[in-house]
Design goal:
The complex is a heterodimer of chains A (332) and B (222). In chain A, 43% of the residues lie in helices and 21% in strands. Chain A has 332 residues and is an alpha/beta fold. Chain A folds into two domains: 3-114 and 288-322, 2-Layer Sandwich (Nucleotidyltransferase, domain 5); 126-285, Nucleotidyltransferase, domain 5, CATH 3.30.420.40. The longest helix of chain A has 27 residues, at 220-246. With 222 residues, chain B is an alpha+beta fold. In chain B, helix 3 (116-129) packs parallel to helix 5 and helix 4 packs antiparallel against helix 5. Chain B is globular and about 50 Å long. Chain B has helices spanning 53-76, 104-111, 116-129, 163-180, 188-199, 203-216, and strands spanning 16-24, 28-35, 38-45, 84-88, 93-97, 102-103, 132-133, 142-145, 148-151, 158-159. Chain B has two domains: 16-97, Phosphorylase Kinase, domain 1 (2-Layer Sandwich), CATH 3.30.200.20; 102-216, Transferase(Phosphotransferase), domain 1, CATH 1.10.510.10. Residues 218-222 of chain B have low confidence and may be disordered. Classes of the chains: A alpha/beta (332), B alpha+beta (222). At the A-B interface, strand 7, strand 8, helix 7 and helix 8 of A face helix 1 and helix 4 of B.
Chain lengths: 332, 222
């Protein structure tokens, strides 16, 4: 039996979680930085918040799992991608714990954390995965030791689209839940750019067009509605194409935006049309959390990966398809 | 009775006999048919019932028109493509020549026909030198029939001579080759780019953009 303490620290959330290698989540504690309404995440403020809340979060995670640091077999941390100052808080905390208690340290790619925790919790084996969050928007397939990118955004992510539009409207950040309820009151579809190149998508033109519509007096309900309808239609189209192209029978959805009920409804229809099973990660684990890091850390650790605290670092920009994952068989 | 062009009740492919669905893609059904006695297919962009109806109609109409135009333009550029027999933008249908053969995707998987990748490069070079960006040149969208490699599925195509747009075409096919056919023998990438450069005088500029696209890593972590 192996126990891993996972530390998540890439954006709004500082998370600490203890997981066992049989896939049991023994604890999952979060502390979320919330910027004032109308403003986005401030890297320095967020890092201060995380630094202030890290000790209590880690202690709570250990207590909730009824273990002490001595029982932990390895420590995993989110090494990237993310905001530099925020990443460094998680890395410093993990490094210090690893050095002091003499524990192996395992760097984890944040987005792979979403994908692997998603596979664990949904039971999906070889899914087409839709990853939609503030940091990522991509359609992926596990194949030959990697998560392969089938299609992705060429510019901003859907999370950024919603958050930046939300900020423009004066909503709190992250703006997803508010945007969704405002969109529910909209009905008039504005003509926004629907841009697909190959299997890649572009959302920055949509953001500009949506802001312009607001500036010339469009109802914000209609703008929110149109942005959701158009952006989600693009995600659904590429997801359908990935299912049709690969012939795979599972569509897995992970990332913060997966909590949106309109998107979920549309994806149900997508998977029905393509004869696939829709695998939704439980809402509690679709967003950022320590468990995604703990679980992926366990997978890496089981395959012999750990780094010396001295040699550990963070990577602000880090493509997820560059990480070799030995547990994804060569044949899949 | 007098009717004008575009009248939806009349302007239909009347001499069309549908035989049966051959393929159900992500956005369209391909139906085997006969048109004026000739083997044909109907590409019918089916509604996506989960979309806002207005958005759905707009996207389907737009792509049908684009595709029909580009199929025609591609042939003028010297790239084999199915002949368009009839276009019905209102119902998002194109009746076109039936090309019987195997998709490049299958030929790469089963027969490892990496030689065809050079022809794909030449096709893209010809399209680009005539101001056409394919928009979706994946390995599913080329069919080998009787020794001729046909380009199809121009629904995402558009007119542009901008090297960054042309580079994104190359990027799409390279991504498909590397992520889905990563185990091919030989150097598919050089074959592709050699074919491309041989068919397009402006290739050098595009390759610079391709390098930028690949090195910047569009995958944002912030």
């Amino acid at each position: 039996m192996t126990l891993c303490l996972g530390i998540e620290s890439t954006a709004h959330t500082f998370g600490a979680s203890v997981m066992r290698d049989d896939g049991t989540i023994l604890s999952d504690v979060r502390s979320v930085y919330r910027p004032p309404p109308g403003s986005g995440i401030h890297p320095r403020e967020a890092s201060r918040h995380h630094a202030a809340h890290a000790p209590e979060s880690v202690r709570e995670a250990l207590d909730a799992a009824s273990i002490g640091m001595g029982d932990v077999d390895c420590i995993a941390y989110s090494a990237g991608p993310g905001l530099g100052p925020v990443l460094r808080v998680g890395a410093v905390v993990s490094r210090a714990l690893a050095a002091y208690y003499g524990k192996p340290l395992v760097p984890v790619h944040h987005a792979i954390g979403h994908l692997e925790l998603g596979r664990l919790l949904t039971g999906a084996v070889r899914p087409v995965a839709l990853l939609v969050s503030g940091g990522h928007t991509a359609i992926l397939l596990p194949r030959s030791s990697r998560w392969r990118v089938f299609g992705e955004t060429l510019d901003i992510t859907v999370g950024q689209l919603i958050d930046q539009l939300g900020r423009y409207m004066g909503l709190p950040s992250p703006a997803g839940p508010e945007m969704e309820s405002i969109a529910r009151e909209g009905s008039n579809l504005l003509d926004l750019p629907y841009v697909i190149r190959g299997n890649d998508m572009s959302f920055s033109g949509m953001l500009t067009a949506a802001k312009k519509s607001l500036a010339v007096g469009a109802r914000r309900e209609d703008v929110a509605f149109s942005v959701q309808e158009t952006a989600f239609a693009m995600l659904c189209e590429v997801s359908e194409r990935a299912l049709a192209f690969s012939g795979r029978g599972e569509l897995m959805v992970v990332g913060g935006v997966a909590a949106n009920s309109r998107l979920r409804l549309m994806l149900e229809s997508v998977s029905r049309r393509q004869g696939a099973r829709l695998e939704l990660v439980p809402a509690r684990y679709s967003g950022d959390c320590g468990a995604q890091i703990a679980w992926t850390g366990l997978l890496h650790y089981a395959h012999g990966l750990s780094v010396e605290p001295r040699a550990s670092g963070v990577i602000q920009r880090w493509r997820l398809d560059q990480v070799t994952l030995p547990w994804i068989e060569r044949s899949t | 009775m007098e009717v004008g062009p575009g009248d939806p009740t009349v302007d239909r492919a009347i001499d069309l006999r549908e035989i049966g669905v051959i393929a159900r893609g992500a956005e369209a059904d391909i139906v085997a048919a006969e048109w004026m006695g000739m083997p044909a297919v109907v590409k019918r962009r089916t509604p996506r019932e989960y979309l806002n109806a207005q958005l759905d109609a707009r996207v389907r109409h737009h792509r049908t028109v684009r595709e029909a135009r580009a199929l025609h333009d591609a042939k003028l550029a010297g790239v084999p493509a199915p002949i368009v027999y009839f276009v019905d933008p209102l119902n998002a249908e194109i009746v076109m020549e039936r090309i019987s053969g195997y998709r490049l995707k299958e030929l790469l998987e089963t027969e490892r026909r990496v030689d065809l990748v050079g022809i794909v490069g030449a096709h893209l070079g010809r399209l680009h030198s005539n101001g056409i960006v394919h928009g979706d040149p994946t390995t599913s969208n080329f069919i080998l029939s009787g020794g001729t490699l046909y380009a199809m599925d121009f629904g995402l195509s558009f007119r542009s001579r901008a090297p960054e747009e042309q580079a994104s075409d190359l990027h799409v096919i390279i991504e498909a080759l590397e992520s889905y056919h990563g185990d091919l023998p030989g150097d598919a990438r050089s074959l592709l780019l050699d074919g491309y450069s041989g068919a397009f005088d402006g290739a050098a500029r595009v390759l610079v953009w391709l390098g930028k696209l690949e090195s910047t890593g569009r995958y944002r972590g912030d």
